[in-house]
Design brief:
Elements (H helix, E strand, L loop, with lengths): L20 H8 L3 E5 L2 E4 L1 H20 L3 E2 L5 E3 H7 L1 H5 L4 E4 L5 E4 L4 H11 L8 E10 L14 E11 L2 H21 L4 E5 L10 E7 L5 E6 L5 E3 L19 E4 L6 H8 L7 E8 L4 E7 L6 H8 L4 E3 L2 H6 L17 E5 H4 L4 E4 L5 E6 L1 H4 L4 E3 L17 E16 L1 H5 L3 E3 L5 E3 L1 E8 H11 L1 E2 L2 E2 L10 E5 L5 H16 L4 E4 L5 H11 L3 E5 L1 H6 L1 E6 L5 E5 L3 H11 L1
Parallel strand pairs: 3-7, 15-17, 17-20, 27-28, 27-29
Antiparallel strand pairs: 1-2, 4-6, 5-6, 7-8, 8-24, 9-10, 10-21, 11-12, 11-21, 13-19, 14-15, 14-16, 18-19, 21-24, 22-23, 25-26, 29-30, 30-31
Helix pairs in contact: 1-13, 2-6, 2-13
The protein binds adenosine-5'-triphosphate and magnesium ion (MG).
Magnesium ion binds next to strand 21.
Length: about 575
């Protein structure tokens, strides 16, 4: 390809709405253009990178036994109503009607379509396992489409669905996909961690998110500083903190006038914050009032709490709901609350000795609270949000909180969809069984953006070689100089012949402009052809990532460039 023919319109100014590097750089370097909020056209450079990512995905999916198919983007509402998700997906689903007023949606995902396909076709355990995948556009009317390709409303996803005869089979399929994802993201050159994630209503250790580490990422993860444990903060387990040996003192109610915050209480009582128990009150989607109690310096993890009480959604409780169950805002404690509400105590609180908590009376607290002695029959759970320095649940070393981008997810569905859609097969004994399913997604367009978040500098993108739109660019310093152009063409032909994915910048622009564009677009290697090359047979090669410059001899540059590329 010649740059004079390449449609890659670069920009000097980027629109203010572009907040993160990948969004800014893809606009500036001529990779994408916006059609509407969260909807983009991929220009040639982006399309090349996407095709390379897809190729890596296809190779690994096929190697793991996957078969590629293409399901419809437009899906009938009936299937979604049958699975019960038509309403659950709600506003996030793009819905449309045909001329006969039949309802459809633009596929946000494909569990319904594929389960319907399989239930009508696959009858016997002998046809299993089955791993089917596709790569196509997905549609989700995200509340906040933002960050360019990171959170689009139309985006490219690879989705694979596995069908097995039992849980053991699903474990095998899951492992295959987990390993394939590890290979895919490694081959793409990304720095990532498979992290344990929350699987919501399904529960158990059923899902991992593959998270590319990046400070602009929307996910927060806890990563062990010693072993390879990593978990989404929503999921990260904590063990109960033990407390020292202390003689239990007699429970006592004391006046704490005007102390509405934990800080005020401990100051008033001259206690350390580790001796305080704070109350956080929520209401769930069924309007149940949930009283959660946690150590004063800890925070409640909403997702853990939701799972602990079987709620789908939590919001802060209203004052009237708190008082209805005996709570007094600012002075709420577990002792004396009405029992017909939901009271959850964090596991670490249960080990506290001689602590303080609200007494459910204005201006009153209890001191010398010993939860095991004083709280009676309560629900005790791990509801604490992990924080920097907390011990790793696997090895005990401190964890570090960091941010990342979810680029893929593997999920054991079990019989969630085969159950609701009645998709069954006959097992070895002729008994009807629901398929045991898994689903496995990769955000293809998001992966491209994640790579840029990880690899860029002030001058532009620094593509990992495997997914660079071109591996190398040849810049002729003066395209009007026929000797230079002749040599550049010669090198271009030789490099192409040797299998290098190379672009020739033959534009009649100033050398400075071409160098700037090469850095902005981020080709891993730049070959400069100027007077030095023509007169002294010196071919200058610059590595984008390190800035290193090599001078190779005109007669032996090709193996040298190949070697350089193989090391990138
Ligand atoms: P998120 O939590 O970021 O909304 P999700 O859990 O809803 O993502 P999945 O349903 O697991 O996403 O989809 C599989 C993959 O598709 C995700 O891991 C992510 O990489 C990608 N993806 C999801 N939503 C978007 C989006 N709006 N834009 C771009 N990629 C997306
Ligand atoms: Mg996900």
């Amino acid at each position: 390809m010649r740059a004079s023919n390449l449609y890659a319109p670069t920009l000097r100014e980027v629109p203010a709405e572009a907040e993160i590097p990948s969004h800014k750089l893809m606009l500036r370097a001529g990779f994408i253009r916006k059609a509407a909020g969260g909807i983009y056209t991929y220009l040639p450079l982006a399309w090349r990178t996407l095709r390379k990512i897809e190729r890596i995905i296809r190779e690994e999916m096929d190697a793991a036994g996957g078969q590629e198919i293409a399901m419809p983007i437009m899906q009938p509402a009936e299937l979604w109503k049958e699975s019960g998700r038509w309403d659950v997906f709600g506003e996030e689903m793009f819905k449309l009607n045909d001329r006969h007023d039949r309802e459809f949606c633009l596929g946000p995902t494909h569990e319904e379509i594929i389960t319907d396909l399989i239930r009508n076709e696959v009858r016997s355990y002998k046809q299993l396992p089955l791993l089917l995948y596709q790569i196509q556009n997905k549609y989700r009317d995200e509340i906040r489409p933002r960050f360019g390709l990171m959170r689009g409303r139309e985006f490219i996803m690879k989705d694979l669905y596995s069908f097995d005869k039992d849980e053991a089979g699903l474990d095998v399929s899951y492992k295959k996909m987990y390993d394939a994802y590890t290979k895919i993201f490694s081959r793409c050159g990304l720095v990532f961690r498979p992290v344990e994630a929350d699987s919501g209503a399904i529960g158990g250790s059923n899902t991992h998110e593959f998270t590319a580490l990046a400070k602009t990422g929307e996910s927060q993860i806890a990563v062990c500083t010693k072993c390879d444990y990593a978990a989404n903060v929503e999921k990260a387990e904590l063990s109960a903190i033990k407390s020292g040996d202390e003689t239990e003192q007699k429970l006592k109610k004391v006046a704490t006038p005007g102390t509405k915050t934990i800080e005020a209480v401990i100051e008033y009582l001259h206690l350390s914050i580790e001796k305080s128990i704070k109350a956080v009150m929520f209401q769930d989607e069924k309007d149940r009032v949930i009283f959660a109690f946690i150590r004063g310096d800890h925070d409640v993890n909403d997702v853990k709490l939701q799972n602990a009480v079987g709620a789908v959604e939590l919001h802060m409780a209203e004052k009237a709901s708190i008082t209805a169950f005996g709570g007094v805002p600012g002075f709420t404690g577990p002792i004396g609350l009405k029992k017909d509400t939901v009271i959850v105590i964090d596991q670490s609180v249960m080990n506290m000795k001689n602590a303080c908590c609200g007494a459910n009376e204005e201006g009153q607290h209890y001191i010398n609270v010993n939860p095991q002695r004083d709280f009676g029959d309560v629900l005790v759970k791990d509801i604490r949000q992990i924080k920097d320095g907390d011990p790793c649940p696997h090895c005990g070393a401190p964890v570090q909180l960091t941010r990342g981008i979810e680029i893929g997810q593997v999920f054991k569905l079990g019989i969630k969809y085969s159950g609701s859609l009645r998709a069954t097969f006959l097992d070895e004994n002729g008994r009807e069984k629901p398929f045991v399913m898994g689903c496995y997604g990769i955000g293809v367009s998001r992966t491209m953006a994640a790579a840029i978040e990880q690899y860029h500098d002030a001058d532009g993108i620094i593509w990992p070689k495997a997914i660079a739109p071109y591996e190398a660019v040849i810049v002729a310093i003066n395209a009007k100089d026929s000797a230079q152009m002749k040599l550049a063409e010669e090198i271009y032909t030789a490099m192409k012949k040797s299998g290098i994915d190379v672009l020739l910048d033959d534009r009649k622009e100033r050398a400075g402009v071409k160098f700037k564009d090469a850095d902005l677009i981020g080709y891993p290697v730049r070959i400069t052809i100027g007077p030095k090359a023509v007169k002294e047979n010196i071919i200058e090669v610059k590595v984008r990532k390190t800035g290193e410059v090599f001078n190779f001899d005109r007669n032996s540059y090709l193996p040298a460039v190949q070697k350089l590329l193989s090391q990138l």
